[in-house]
Amino acid sequence: SDELTQPPSVSVSPGQTARISCSGDALAQKYAYWYQQKSGQAPVLVIYDDTKRPPGIPERFSGSTSGTMVTLTITGAQVEDDGDYYCYSVATSGNYVVFGGGTKLTVL
Amino acid sequence: QVQLQESGPGLVKSSETLSLTCSVSGSSITSTGYYWGWTRQPPGKGLECLGTIYYTGTTYYSPSFSSRVTMSVDTSKSQLSLKLSSVTAADTAVYFCARHKRADFWGGYPTDWGQGILVTVSS
Question: According to DSSP H, which parts of A1-72 are helical?
């Protein structure tokens, strides 16, 4: 079961701001991480520790947190940002980690 | 630059044991800053973390798989291994190995991934 809940899909036009949410009780105490996955490829870390951006990730990617919800924001989304996005953190019910169900971002 | 490469049979019969190996290069598998993990992705579906292992052999398995999964590490060969027993068609998936950076929770978070290997379970 998804202990981290994400919307199945988000759609924006190029240049608009895309926001993808992830909710879970553990997020109030534990960091969240965000991964981008393009078709047929391995996931790529785009945000860690709720708000930090790894080297090489464009500045248009940012993360925020509020209580039990975290949000990935892509400011000025580009066509190449199209793909699936997954949040990752600690499960509410136990001492293990989980991925959210994933959100398909469409930029067109 | 760390590189991870999964290998193993691409086809496994139902009720048998799936066995995969992940070869690690460019990073010491005994580094204290990292765990090593396995994640899978059924066709058209999301990511599922099976569990992680520390170089000492300490393992953390996700509850959904804990009764069927075994992970191990061979530091002399710089390899990880995954065994998943009693497989069914539902275990058909792309299996990824990954290096996980240590965090304030066990298992850490994946930072570097292998390309993945598709394993199909046949009846």
Answer: none
Q: Whats the size of chain B, residue-wise?
A: 123
Taking the CA of residue A82 and the nearest CA in chain B, the distance in Å comes to 16
Q: Which residues of chain B from 15 to 54 reach within 8 Å of chain A, CB to CB?
A: 39, 46-49, 51-52
Kindly report, residue by residue over B27-58, the tens digit of the pLDDT: 999 999 999 999 999 999 999 999 999 999 99
Q: Using one digit for the tens of pLDDT, what is the confidence trace for A29-40?
A: 999 999 999 999
Query: Tokens in use for A32?
Result: 């969240």
A24 contacts: CB under 8 Å, gap ≥ 6: A3, A4, A5, A68, A89, A91, A92, A100
CA of B2: how far to CAs of A6, B74, B97, B109, in Å? Answer: 30, 17, 12, 15
Pairing of strands B34-41, B109-113: unpaired
Q: Are B122 and B11 in contact, with CB atoms under 8 Å apart?
A: yes
Q: Do A96 and B60 make contact, defined as CB atoms within 8 angstroms?
A: yes
For B67-87, what is the mean pLDDT? 97
Closest CA to A77 of A41, A46, A42, A108: A108
Asked if B50 contacts B38 with a C-beta cutoff of 8 angstroms, the reply is yes
Give the residue with greater pLDDT, B123 vs A17: A17
